[in-house]
Amino acid sequence: MICLTFLTYERLAIAKRCLESVGKNLKCSEELWLHIADDGSSQEYRDELLDLAHQYYGDNVSATNSDRRGYGGNYNAATAITHRIADLILPLEDDWEMQREFDLTPIANVLRAGLFGCVRMGYIGYTGELRATFRWAENMHWLELDPESSEPHVFSGGPRLETVEWERAVGLWPEGLEQGKTEMDIAWRPASKYKVAWPVELIRPSIGDVFSHIGGEKASIEGLRTAVPA
Questions:
Q1: What pLDDT was estimated at residue 216?
Q2: What is the pLDDT of residues 144-159, one digit of tens each?
Q3: Between 20 and 30 A from 44 (CA), which of 6, 159, 188, 204?
Q4: Residue 138: φ, ψ to 5°
């Protein structure tokens, strides 16, 4: 089973827009599960998102409320549930909108084959040197990101598909920190840098190909350069 973990807090219009885009565009050869990971919004807020989730995923829906424990606490509360539901997890913040149809099947296949532990699907950004090696699987090329790169963002907090085994190796996320500091804590953990890949034949490394970040703040705060598309 693949579980989408939708990380959210109190911005209903944008969250519904993004959740609906995923429901319409994300495809796979197997059933998907949707988990609403909410960090203490009102019950009415969760109910609205749950109603929308049921429209696309039927009974394959669950939810947690981390009661304002922050980004890391919200993630941790979700994994306590999702790791019992699925073997692959797609963490997705509530301000990433899908721009086109996309089939997860080849990414799920390479992860289950053990070639990678995490495949990124947002965009590639870097402030230092980010190296990669070509790998061949599923009749296509993949880029395995070098864990020894000087760029700390080998892992990224953007959309990605991960194995539960890889997530457990990275460990619980720190709680009570701002989102950017939380992601940086994870990015510096050695386990988060290994077996991370980019699906170079499936998604262009620039913003807006499959998932577009519409929150308007994250990329500018981190100061990341996006890759220039070929």
A1: 63
A2: 999 999 999 999 999 9
A3: 159
A4: 55, 35
- Asked whether the CA dihedral 14, 65, 89, 142 is positive or negative, the reply is positive
Q: Which residue has the tokens 């619980």?
A: 172
Judged by DSSP in three states, 132 sits in: strand
In terms of Cβ atoms closer than 10 Å to its own Cβ (0-12, 13-18, 19+), residue 11 is middle
Rounded to two decimals, what is the model's pTM?
Answer: 0.93
Domain boundaries defined on the chain: 2-226
CA atoms 138, 139, 140, 141: torsion sign: positive
The Cα-based distances of 166 to 46, 115, 154, 161, 193 in angstroms read: 29, 12, 14, 10, 10
Q: Does domain 2-226 have CATH number 3.40.1180.10?
A: no
**What is d(CA 223, CA 30) in angstroms, rounded to the nearest whole number?**
37
Cα–Cα distances in angstroms (integers) from residue 62 to residues 3, 29, 77, 162, 227, in the given order: 10, 21, 12, 19, 36
Structure token pair of residue 156: 């990224």
